[in-house]
Amino acid sequence: MNVINSKVVKDANELTAMREFTRASNANVNNISFKTLAKTITLNNVSEVDFIGGADSKDIKTDIRITYDGGKVFNVSLKKPSFKAWESADSLIGDAVAEKILEYLLDEVNNPTSMIRSFKPVSYIQGGKVRYRIVKRSGNSITSVAFKCGTSDATRVIFGTDILGRGAVISNDFNSGSIINGQTLEINVSGIYQVLSEIPNSIFPYFQVNSVKETRNRYRFPGLRVEAKPLNALSNSIKIEIPLR
What we know:
Elements: E1 2-5, H1 12-26, E2 31-35, E3 40-43, E4 46-51, E5 64-68, E6 72-79, H2 89-92, H3 96-110, E7 119-126, E8 129-136, E9 144-148, H4 151-159, E10 167-171, E11 178-181, E12 184-188, E13 191-193, E14 205-211, E15 224-230, E16 237-240
Parallel strand pairs: 1-4, 2-12, 6-10, 9-16
Antiparallel strand pairs: 2-3, 4-5, 5-6, 7-8, 9-14, 10-13, 11-12, 14-15
């Protein structure tokens, strides 16, 4: 089993994982097994474990590419058990999802549509430029809004285009729970997710809109940022359970 670092890995969790796989490689291990209490995935005759560190293009989630059983490929998107985001703002800003959400919010700036909403976007001037923030309708304190992802959007932000049917999202910190059993590296992990139905409600993705000082899309929606976050990372957000699309 050859362990490769195709891209400079800086993430601490991936570096810890790399050390575990290197330890197994030095012990001439041939197989890898990912295990939870409910599920086990075993890859036999592993020839290569390639740490690609995530790709630069959108919708690519693979952090580790494992080649096994004569050339088959298993892609792993690695998440810490307490991860805070499914997809970063930089990759979301400017795409159809962010555009739809932000336009929905900003529509109220010029054409207020409903007093039922407990929040509203407002414009303000900073440094001679128009910016936006989201505030509570009662009291005008700054807040964030989180829209639950629909099925297709949730599948996209979790699995991208390279995990579904070709690998798994694996939640683990690799600090403990790995043993070498004969020719197999057995890794006890927090979660193994291969289809949307396996995603617990606690980490189901929401599109969260925050009021921030800096945002990548500062020309179109200055002051607002969209991120895909798990439910358990939405602190003090106003949650909208009906997806926008």
